[in-house]
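Appendix B: a complete holo record

For completeness, this appendix reproduces one full record from the ligand-bound portion of the collection. The bound molecule is magnesium ion. The inputs are the chain sequence and the ligand SMILES; the output is the full three-dimensional arrangement of the complex, encoded as structure tokens. No fields have been trimmed.
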Amino acid sequence: MENPFKFGTLVDNEYFTDRVMEQQHICSMLDSPNHIVLISPRRFGKSSLVKRVVRQSGRPFISLNMQQVTCVEDLAAMILKGVFKLHPWEKLKHLLANFRVIPTISTTPLGDSVEIGFQPTANLSALLEDALSLVERVSEPSNRMIVVFDEFQEIMEVEKGIDRKLRAIMQEQQNVNYIFLGSEESMMTDIFERKKSPFYHFGMLMRLKKIPYEDFYFYITGRLNSVMLSEACQMAEGILAFTKCHPYYTQQLASMVWELARYKNLSTEKLMESAINQITETHDLNFERIWMSLNNTDKRIIRMLSKGEKPYEQKSLPTSTTYSSIKKLMKKGFLIKEETYEVEDPFFKQWINKQNQEA
Ligand SMILES: Nc1ncnc2c1ncn2[C@@H]1O[C@H](COP(=O)(O)OP(=O)(O)OP(=O)(O)O)[C@@H](O)[C@H]1O
Ligand SMILES: [Mg+2]
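The structure of the chain with magnesium ion bound, as generated:
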């Protein structure tokens, strides 16, 4: 029997739940000439959702992960690689002849992997322009190409002014739908919502939330049934109370609960406690390292939030200090804001509360 929960990598099919409205929304945007901007904290399911919709659309697509791009040449090469995967080399040959900087292309004897390089050039804009116009050229109006930029906020690190260049090229295109994903809320908002930014209101902005309780509850009980009977409902409630429906942490904890239920004979309470402790202990060193890297104000704020207190209602810290610390902690991904501010990782929260009790 295989563990029916999956975390860490992209999920689809039997591991994918909910997101019905979001899928419809993305589909209808892709059926129009518009672009999409999808923002959420880390591991809420952006990449899984988009990959699923794009794959189901049956349209040609190119996925670009900006975390793997360090310079303009990388980005241009990645775009070309994407095009080569979709179209036979013969069809592209004459189009490549028009490139201002001719790419050098090498393939393995079986042709299963392609390496692309460019001769050194000062004209980096030409590289990008040529690569993106190739995408437009090979894309058919009735079957538009979809280009997905994952972790798009990283683009700002590639080169100063690259956002301006990209937008200048993209706004002229007719046959491509762009999807921009990002987990750095403040940077993504700055790129797509700040009036002076080149990408201001370039696409429809969507914010991905956690998975709704009801849906996750049925997802978990349905799977825990294979290793427990009447306790599955109570266990699902416990898991969701701990993870607050965070997609990744819920699957992670459910997976551990399933594992323990299968191999150990423990009471419901002990099972949950044991699963939480095992995961928390695995990350002990990392939590310690993160904790040591925080200043005293940050530590105070996280500690309060971990205990369920509201730091901005406390008189002991100036409001401006509290908010600038919260802002910084959100940028680093340690806090997220749903209805209210919360510690992103429930296991880190657990670790902090435990340290407090022991102190
Ligand atoms: N629709 C879903 N149904 C069930 N679990 C999901 C769903 N979406 C995401 N998850 C869980 O969350 C994890 C992270 O998903 P994914 O990598 O798609 O998120 P992401 O927002 O792209 O993350 P990152 O910011 O790290 O790139 C998955 O491995 C899975 O455990
Ligand atoms: Mg992702």
